Amino acid sequence: MKNEGIEGTERFVSPERGRGLRALRHFSVGELLFSCPAYSYVLTVNERGAHCEHCFTRREDLFKCGKCKQAYYCNVECQRGDWPMHKLECMAMCAYGENWCPSETVRLVARIIMKQRVTTERTLSEKVLLLKEFESHLDKMDSEKDEIVQADIAALHHFYSKHISDLPDEQTLIELFAQVNCNGFTIEDEELSHLGSAVFPDVALMNHSCSPNVIVTYKGTAAEVRAVQEINPGEEIFNSYIDLLYPTEDRKERLLESYFFTCQCTECTTKSKDKAKMEIRKLSLPPEPEEIQSMVRYAKNIIEEFRRAKHYKNILHIFPSELLEMCELSQEKMGAIFGDTNVYMLHMMYQAMGVCLYMQDWDGAMSYGEKIVQPYSVHYPAYSLNVASMYLKLGRLYLGLERKTQGVKALKKALAIMEVAHGKEHHYVAEVKREIEEQK
């Protein structure tokens, strides 16, 4: 296909940001700007059996691939549709058995290589940006990132070289992995559980802001971009690349580390929410600045431990009570200085809530959710998926604990956000409406 562009928008050179996307007409809050099918995608291993490998539909009556017996599908049509991509994994999984364990990034890159071999023209995912135009930032990679890429390349050769003839040369692979690391997306469900990884070239064209005017949600394996602020003709369209809970300096560090730029958006310039996000406990003797900084460093170290736990679900499976104790001890220590609505306290409460959910401690999970949801509503931008997912989790917990009135109230609050972020016709919205209707 030719470069047809995205209706109502245009690619342009964004001041101090390189290329970007801007509006050619007015977009109202909740309006769909565009939908982008994934150029390539992969379902995460942990969701196998719960979601269709091809369309990501969540259902209970999936049937498995007859060869590898690890991939699941809605029907024969989905299996056939996925076969061009699944066949290289199917053969490898049969060959390696339980020893088949490439990372999600390696699996995604393998699929991209296969897609590039059979696709010669611009795809529907590349109306304004080609995948080969992705920034790689190779000149900015440190030794740690370089080691990760080298390990991924080694894994690609180990698991796929027998099944993909003539893999690209080393330099090409280094650049491809770097491009995917900088431009890849994680597909999530309505409660922000990780479903898989994908590349959406047109979505990747949008630049970042900590006060974004659009939000990206997913319908199956397609990304949908909707306005969460009024957007006027000539205005740049901004997405958010990161979790916006944290204060300015944290966000800047994360963006520089992962995306190699220093954010200069309005929120980073004014730091308007930092004071509320960094609430300090009211004490008779206020803590010294050095004590606060020391506690911030402690909090960041704890957060980094969780972030680096790549096999978190396995750790959770083996040591749930120890993880919960770690969360509680960190809250106790930080609580000597930080207020309950401090974002570092909220982070550990969120981790603790996740462990409680895993342990089926519904009362414990509900207790943490009740402490989290209101501060989230203050710290996050309007129509935040983080706020919606928290109300959704709380609502479902309330209903499970037979607290009908509170459950319906929480679900309605989630629904109000989801109808803007996901669109009124999304199947997640229909599911929540059905849950509310069942309580009447």
From TrEMBL:
Superkingdom of origin organism: Eukaryota
UniProt-listed InterPro entries: H3K4_H4K5_MeTrfase, SET_dom, SET_dom_sf, TPR-like_helical_dom_sf, Znf_MYND
GO biological process, one term: methylation
Residue ranges occupied by any SET domain in the UniProt entry: 7-242
Keyword S-adenosyl-L-methionine: yes
Keywords, alphabetical: Chromatin regulator, Cytoplasm, Metal-binding, Methyltransferase, Nucleus, S-adenosyl-L-methionine, Transcription, Transcription regulation, Transferase, Zinc, Zinc-finger
A molecular-function term among this protein's GO annotations: zinc ion binding
The EC number(s) this enzyme carries: 2.1.1.354
Pfam family, one: zf-MYND
Compartment annotation: Cytoplasm, Cytosol; Nucleus
SUPFAM superfamilies registered for this protein in UniProt: SET domain (SSF82199), TPR-like (SSF48452)
Enzyme class label: transferase
GO cellular component, one term: nucleus
Domain MYND-type: 52-90
Function of the molecule: Protein-lysine N-methyltransferase that methylates both histones and non-histone proteins, including p53/TP53 and RB1. Specifically trimethylates histone H3 'Lys-4' (H3K4me3) in vivo. The activity requires interaction with HSP90alpha. Shows even higher methyltransferase activity on p53/TP53. Monomethylates 'Lys-370' of p53/TP53, leading to decreased DNA-binding activity and subsequent transcriptional regulation activity of p53/TP53. Monomethylates RB1 at 'Lys-860'.
Entry protein name: [histone H3]-lysine(4) N-trimethyltransferase
